[in-house]
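Entry 12.
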Amino acid sequence: MDLTVLNLALPAISADLKPTSAQLLWIVDIYGFLVAGLLITMGALGDRIGRRRLLLIGAAAFGVASVLAAFSTSAEMLIATRAALGIAGATLAPSTLSLIRNMFRDSGERRFAIGVWITSYSAGGAIGPLVGGILLEHFWWGSVFLAGVPVMALLLAVGPALLPEFRDPEAGRPDLASAALSLAAVLPVIYGIKRIAESGAAWLPVLSILAGLAAGAMFVRRQRRLADPLIDLRLFRSPAFSASLATYTLGTFVAFGSFLFIAQYLQRVLGLTPLQAGLWLLPFFAGWISGSMLAPLIARRLRPAFALSAGLVLAAGGFGLLTRVDGGSALPVLVTGSLLVSLGLAPVFTLATDVIVGAAPPERAGAASAISETGSELGGALGIALLGSLATAVYGREALTQGLQLTAAISAAVVLATAIVAGVVLRQVRTA
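Predicted 3D structure (tokens):
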């Protein structure tokens, strides 16, 4: 919700705080940058100090930062509080996912819990604009930041009683150099990708990506030398872990890249208002929710290889339908195609996440969860940058219909190729 409500509040923020164009970009981006950059560090930290403890610390910090953001009196203050929100937000996903790994030892229960966990993201994305619109209708722009405060307060109230604690009793002290290198690797790459998506290729974002890749190489080299690394690179030797991570990353690549064009097409080509566009996107989000909840049932009947491949093939069919969007039938074709995409990808995300987390030993679940979410962040950023930039370069910024069709065709090819690889690599992996 916190990611989606801000966009609605930007006009009011601009009128009140009068940020420069650069400051406005940082207000929007700093949260996601820091979440992506700190996921690995926070996942490993939770393994060491306790996942419940880190979750509650993050929840308290998130609540305080939300209040400060709501009452920001300058653009600089809002950027700083959004940065604090990003640091706190980076604790939430790896802590909750790794706690699920330990709370639900039965594979069927764990898979269902992960389905609920992924569904919560879809539900938050769907209701965020609705809640934000209602708040902005009656209150000032800062009210959108307060929407998460009651949730954090509830978590702090009941979390200590309901959530078990888990930490790795043999873990050493966190390696600060590794934490700095992981941030230096992920942050510049995400920054460069987003800038290329917004403004096209330029020397600064390209250098930023290259610097991040160099820091990533140094990070990997350091992990190999440490007795207690931030990330156990042996996880990547598992075909189940690596193939599922690649599937999850490529799934977010096509999902984010295509959604960018779908949302724009509804408003800029079909001329719908933001509210109307949001309503026509409800089937898309409903598909995510339904697909996530169906994943455990699918997993009972199919091996992971077949389940993932089937979902990807269904998504490819949806993308194929999106290549036909044009003319008077554009709206029903768009809604049907996007529904098939979400119905196909949602169980893929749930099952791939389950395999990723399940492949790691319990004491490393936090780090594995963080790797999973970092892959998702990178996949989403790459989808927006590469697919968006390619369509823009081929057809220009106004030709959204052709851009959507090209993006859908590329996405269909990507998911079909991923379906083949997942089916081959994971064919020996059985549902536990």
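Annotation: The chain has a mean pLDDT of 82. The radius of gyration is 21 Å.
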